[in-house]
Design goal:
mainly alpha, Non-ribosomal Peptide Synthetase Peptidyl Carrier Protein, Chain A, two-stranded antiparallel sheet, 7 helices, 2 strands, 76% helix, 4% strand
Length: 178
């Protein structure tokens, strides 16, 4: 294979590409960064990160104050970290810690689904339903033939107005020609 990158750049190549270099000026880069930050997706992502931190705090409190005491009542241990744990050659494997993390994940997933995703989906369905009803009320759906006839009628009326005739005059003329 041959090397596709030139090993030397001539002054003429720099002059010819000067307009392309202006795209990478500091002002354009700052403007591009401002546009990137101002996009809705970036703001949504920031809100998601903050909400994730808040939900994690709530879930940790539920696990520490409610679930761990329930586990202590059932298994006699205050948390699941040492539950189902065994040590081999100085290495401890704890299935209880894994179960505790899975339980935290499930609680977070349930909280996010029922508190955030489900209400948003219901709201979207509600707005789509009402938007569809509003458009149905505004104009009935016409068949392609009816749309063509309506368009041709509009064109005829505009041409008649442009020529100084009325639509009744053109309809009389077309009737007398038949």
């Amino acid at each position: 294979m041959t090397n596709m990158v030139p090993t030397t750049i001539t002054p003429q190549q720099v002059v010819n590409n000067k307009e392309n270099l202006e795209d990478y000026s500091e002002d354009n880069m700052i403007e591009g960064f401002k546009k990137f930050i101002a996009r809705g997706q970036m703001i949504d992502m920031a809100v998601g990160v903050v909400m994730g931190g808040a939900v994690t705090t709530v879930v940790n409190a539920i696990v520490k104050s409610f679930i761990n005491p329930l586990i202590a009542m059932i298994f006699g241990k205050p948390d699941m970290d040492n539950l189902l744990a065994f040590t081999v050659n100085g290495a401890t494997i704890s299935f209880g810690a894994i179960l505790g993390s899975l339980l935290n994940f499930l609680i977070i997933a349930v909280a996010i689904y029922f508190c955030i995703v489900l209400p948003i989906n219901k709201f979207r369905d509600f707005t789509k339903k009402h938007a569809a009803e509003a458009t149905e009320d505004e104009a009935p759906e016409l068949s392609p033939e009816d749309q063509t006839i309506a368009l041709l009628t509009e064109i005829r009326d505009q041409l008649a107005q442009k020529n100084g005739e009325t639509t009744t005059d053109t309809s009389k003329n077309s009737a007398s020609q038949n």
